[in-house]
């Protein structure tokens, strides 16, 4: 700031007085403010520098605060993209269904939907039957192992 004050006298020759006077008052106000802040905060800064435990705690808090800010920004950016993709998928489904109904007509769309539901219900029943058969085979295997243990004297391991 001392350098700026040295060149303030040259400012009258470079700028008109309508700009110079407000600029000089703003610069002197800022200079006074910085000097006041320096005088009040210099003891605090020297105390923090001389006592490393306080400095480390303050540095840790600053790092924690900045990391939380960064995580907040990352969360907001990820949520923006997730919402954008969700909106695009939703509107594509709406447009696709609308075009399907437009091309096939309401009766054709209902008939197609009934065929789709029938097909998927058949697949579901087929999968459910396979799951029941697998569960029954697993139970039968467990029963067979229990009978073998009972017939073998109930011992475990190698003898």
Descriptive tags:
159 residues; mainly alpha; 91% helix; elongated; transmembrane; Nuclear pore assembly and biogenesis-domain-containing protein; membrane; APQ12; transmembrane helix
Characterization of the model:
There is one protein chain. With 159 residues, this protein is mainly alpha-helical. It has a domain at 1-50. 91% of the residues lie in helices and 0% in strands. The protein has helices spanning 2-7, 11-14, 17-50, 52-151. The longest helix has 100 residues, at 52-151. It starts with a helix and ends in an 8-residue tail after the last helix. Keywords: Membrane, Transmembrane, Transmembrane helix. The chain crosses the membrane at residues 14-33, 54-74, 80-102. It comes from Karstenula rhodostoma CBS 690.94.
Q: Kindly state the mean pLDDT as a whole number? A: 86
Could you spell the SSE succession in H and E letters? HHHH
Tell me the total number of β-strands.
0
Q: Assign a percent range to the helix content.
A: over 70%
- The proportion of strand residues reads under 5%
User: Segments where pLDDT lies below 50 for 5+ residues?
Assistant: none
Q: Roughly how many Å apart are the termini?
A: 93 Å
So what's the overall shape?
Answer: elongated
Organism: Karstenula rhodostoma CBS 690.94
Protein name: Nuclear pore assembly and biogenesis-domain-containing protein
Keywords: Membrane, Transmembrane, Transmembrane helix
InterPro entries: APQ12 (IPR024316)
Give a concise summary:
Helices cover 91% and strands 0% of the residues.
């Amino acid at each position: 700031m001392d350098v700026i004050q040295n060149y303030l006298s040259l400012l009258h020759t470079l700028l008109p007085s309508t700009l110079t006077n407000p600029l000089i008052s703003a610069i002197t106000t800022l200079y006074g403010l910085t000097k006041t802040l320096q005088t009040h905060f210099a003891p605090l800064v020297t105390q923090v520098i001389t006592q490393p435990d306080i400095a480390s705690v303050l540095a840790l808090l600053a790092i924690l605060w900045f990391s939380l800010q960064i995580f907040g920004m990352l969360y907001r950016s990820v949520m923006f993209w997730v919402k954008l993709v969700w909106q695009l998928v939703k509107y594509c489904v709406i447009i696709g269904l609308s075009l399907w109904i437009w091309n096939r007509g309401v009766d054709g769309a209902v008939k197609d939907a009934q065929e789709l539901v029938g097909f998927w219900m058949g697949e579901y029943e087929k999968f459910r039957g396979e799951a029941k058969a697998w569960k029954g085979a697993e139970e039968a295997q467990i029963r067979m192992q229990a009978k073998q243990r009972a017939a073998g004297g109930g011992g475990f391991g190698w003898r």
